[in-house]
Amino acid sequence: MESLPKITESVRLPLSIKVPPHVMDHRFQGKAVLPAVEAMEELAASTRARLPETAVFAIGDARFDKFLFIEDAQTPVDAFNDLEVSENGTVISRLITRTRSKKALITRTLEHATLCFRGVSNGSAPPPSDIPTVSEYHISAETIYQTLVPFGPAYHNLREGVDLHKEGARGKVYAPLWADPSGLLGSSFPLDAAFHAACVWGQRYAGLVGFPVGFRLRRLFVPTRSGNTYTASIIPKAVHSDRFLVDIWITGADGAVHEAVLGVVMKDVSGGRIKPPSWIVKQDANNPGSFARSYLDATEKK
Fold it and tell me: Under 8 Å CB-to-CB from 20, ≥6 apart: which residues?
């Protein structure tokens, strides 16, 4: 058994996360939460400031374990970037907060996000897998944001809705111009909207409402920029009882890949309390119980 890489540096960096008013539109069960894309931007910027040579455009083994709830848009969130540098050059970055109970006088440390920055070159991107050009089902942006992904208007960036097929989903994702300037990792909105498209696909074909809780690898080739429209392609890889896995490809108008996020884990984080509306779940004509069940069986046999 190989020994784990030795940690050569460990430091806790303070973070003061400024909360733009639009973040209050990113909500879970009525409470504003910091988007995963914003957590990645905060950690990447902090890590690059401390370690300028870090390859922040290749992020692996990401986890988003706990929501970071936002109380209001006026007060910055006090947090930390826990950095570990290994002898093999791998950099681990963790977004944590610390809260103190007034009654018990106990300090709790919560880990919200973990990223692994890998020393991968920014070389050319492989082409994404094909999705059938014929849509099996189209859902409008209005329906998505009223009933399926009930975020506020700042996050309504699947402007033309999404086309769905058992083998994938595709939709136009927009990076609002008013959100300039884009951060180190580009505009956060296209990938966030791609997560919405993946969530919609999961509601129809996996029968669950999934939120991104991690991914295997994110590669940024040409960061997305505010004011532009991109195409997000969602490629399903596996379906399980409480989660499903997809690959996400974001391409420009010329078809060039801007970023790829592979092995995205979309999980039901409600413990089964949040269900997709019955009208969207694909039903098997021969078994009105669930199309999702048959798709689950098929993917688990692969």
Answer: 73
